[in-house]
Prior knowledge:
The chain is of the alpha/beta class. The chain has 26 helices and 21 strands.
Amino acid sequence: MTSEPTTVDTPLKKLVGERTAKALASHLDLHTAGDLIYHFPRRYDERGEHTDIRSLDVGEQVTVLAQVQRTAVRPMRQRRGNLLEVTVGDGSGGVLTLTFFGNQAWRERDLRPGRWGLFAGKVTEFRGKRQLNGPEYVLLGEGGDGEAAANEEVEEFAGALIPVYPAAAAVPTWVIARCVRVVLDTFTPPDDPLPATVRATRNLVDIGAALREIHRPTTKEALYKARRRLKWDEAFAVQLTLVQRKHRAAARPAKARPAKAGGLLDAFDARLPYELTPGQQTVGREVAADLATAHPMHRLLQGEVGSGKTVVALRAMLQVVDAGGQAALLAPTEVLAAQHYRGVLELLGPLARAGELGAADDATRVELVTGSLGAAARRRALAEVAEGRAGIVLGTHALLYEGVDFHDLGLVVVDEQHRFGVEQRDALRSKADQPPHVLVMTATPIPRTVAMTVYGDLEVSTLSQLPQGRSPIASHVVPAAEKPAFLDRAWRRVREEVSAGHQAYVVCPRIGEGPVSDEEPPREDDNGRRPPLAVTEVAPLLAEGPLHGLRIGVLHGRLPADEKDAVMRAFAAGDLDVLVATTVIEVGVNVPNATVMIVLDADRFGVSQLHQLRGRVGRGSAAGLCLLVTEAMEGSSSRERLDAVASTTDGFKLAELDLEQRREGDVLGATQSGRRSHLRLLSLLRDTDLIRDARAEAIELVEEDPELARHPALAASVAALVDEERAEYLEKG
């Protein structure tokens, strides 16, 4: 151990010993004193207050503060020795059984009724009772026997507020608390990077006090102030990054692409068979104005499934073609790219057939570039693109490959941005001589605070109205385990719709045997649940059983591209009654005659995924029906999530629910980059005002000092919280 001052860079092995440091590094990715100091408690328990055991989910790794109620020893049935069962309670009526195998009489003496302790383990269920098998624990108060309550560790919990840390099975919360105490004893906080004027204006405590109080709070008020300061640091770092990047982007030159009277765009508007919604007209004017400037447009277009984003994007592409440039649309799947291609050809008609008989005078060409193009077709398409004859180019990530060259790329449209990596999106933009204009589209509505925090350097446009002719969608949960007759009725409902001349989707979470793909979740469940239902297994069962006699097709990501396209074309043409598919149909698939969707194992999908999926029905004049089939029991969190999806088609409400249930750090690309999130305290839902204030301060500071040259400590702090990889993720949307 050392008595030297400890800084954020001091290796943990110098402070807590080799063995503990190794455990912290391998299980929690904590290597330095700074890593540990910024590993904040997840929550704080108070003796006498309950943890709400009833809310624990099976399979969850938990730490609960509870009181021993009773103990019982009984012989084991299958092998020699005794089993110790300890019942603990949280004061709210919730109880948990702790089970210890083998002859451990000393534990019975240790775990006397009335003792309070922290108990850590994985929640399992046996005969309807929640339990922890062989949990780690530490008792509070006077030390007990053996390893359970080493006095050194119990010291951590002498105060009223007991920190509970994000932990691992091999490194429980009390070990982390002990290590934090060792570090804090000699810790010298860094110079405060936050400008004194901001601290004074916003009434924020200094960084040293915040870091001490977050771990060892003296009062609830001191803890509140510490958390507020540290949340501010996170919000300020993100906002400074976004504001700086927006500032730099504004300084970059781009080629202006102003509208041209009497050109392709005007001809397209004249042949549209319907009127644009007021929302489409407003957003269209915003986009047109952006394209006419000499700075690159960087706009996010969000709108519900079916709100008409594609028409807005096509009008922007035509404006660029009118101005002598080319436009490229990047789609996440070949199915969607091919569908966009057919849809654009249909909308443009003779305007898309330059060089052909019957083409309009000022027509352009539309090309599709995907990985499955044959060699001859690919050579022809690439020549059209490179020589500028193809004004509009649609494709998948195949557009990004070397050998795909544009004559004058002026606009990049990215459909469903969350399906692409940062590098993929950037590769397409780099194919232009000057920065192209960028329009990012998403059908997943984004709560205001997320837009402010993740897309703060994009202008945001929202389409909230649905075009005329779109029909309402009714959604219902089908509890297959509790009421099997409801599932039978669901299949009869499909037959009724087909008899009425309509079509149906059946969605499964998994493809089937073979390697797991990106579109299916892991097969094994930690808690022994059966594997998710698979397309290749469900389709034959339906064909032989409840949907016997109907024309059934199968669609998933492992099919060859030409087969996928053939299946989709057959379904769109009405040659198939039922399409059994994975989430490959989640985005953009448009078959107006499909009126009913059954989602099997619906609890295995996320909220936004379910919302996207159900948008595939109700796209014509007949009402849509979405049935969410689940074995999740009433009262479980999975079932509550499905009930919420069924209760509303308001995408913004569902986006907030989705955000509540996901780790908010994922929003900043932690999952995408495979790294820990640096948003440890900030809540995008609950800290709206703080985020707004941080943005205001960031704008003011960047206007005065664009590169933070006069604030080097702040610049370093921002770099630590929002590293370059995450900053690029934020920038590119």
